[in-house]
């Protein structure tokens, strides 16, 4: 009656070993890393994992001799798993409070936005607001403390799932280092296992019907129609919306090449020159000319006639700028390039626009 299948022993020991090893590696490399090499820390983490796997074998052997002790082994290993998860989550919280997470080197903050990696963009965005960091830290530490109470454990596990899921999605789609994603996935595996041990109370809470409010009495087809409307109506509204990408073939960032002003070819701009270097054609027909520096820009709205390639722009920034910009824009020989001939102010302009991939 007190026996536990070896597969269950192996699963709990494997997950606990992964969580303990990953947390040991992260905490040791950050806080006790002076004089300790990373390969040595990783080796010790693997030793911990192997030790827990061997524990499953010893546990199974001891169970044959004393079946009554099996539940005690299970409680101890689950307790180690819970405590390690709580320590790791709480440490993540204090990392944010003490500015040890979501930090971008100051020198990178002046790099153009489009040149930053997904990891740098993520840290710069989240780290911009210290109160937000503290709020996330408080949530993580609260979940960690809830895990340690028998009555609050289920609530803590439920609360930590969306936090970890959000971290995993960010790590995946913003191209964080693989180790970061692996660590979050291991923590999620530990939380998932602990939730599965609480299947009965979870099913009782989420699937029980007797405490739900009484229905309206509508027939099933009406209910299903209303439910379908929740998904279909917003979809139809968005699908029929006049999306402001009026000229998708033009939308993008362009680098100016082969620039000629008044039929005189211009060489590469030197530092401080106000030569036209970039062109942006955006949603809503927004149009930007950049003159060798992001602080020197004309911003306005363009009109484009695909029939004859006529392109013109009206400026709204800087205030008081009324220099005419108009001409002909046609596709060039190479894909993603365009050739413009026209006027800017009192000068004739000819240039090649080369589209920059994101």
UniProtKB/TrEMBL annotation:
Q: Which UniProt keywords apply?
A: Membrane, Transmembrane, Transmembrane helix
So where does this one cross the membrane? Answer: 41-61, 73-94, 130-148, 155-174, 180-199
Q: What is this protein called?
A: Uncharacterized protein
Organism, by scientific name, is: Chitinophaga eiseniae
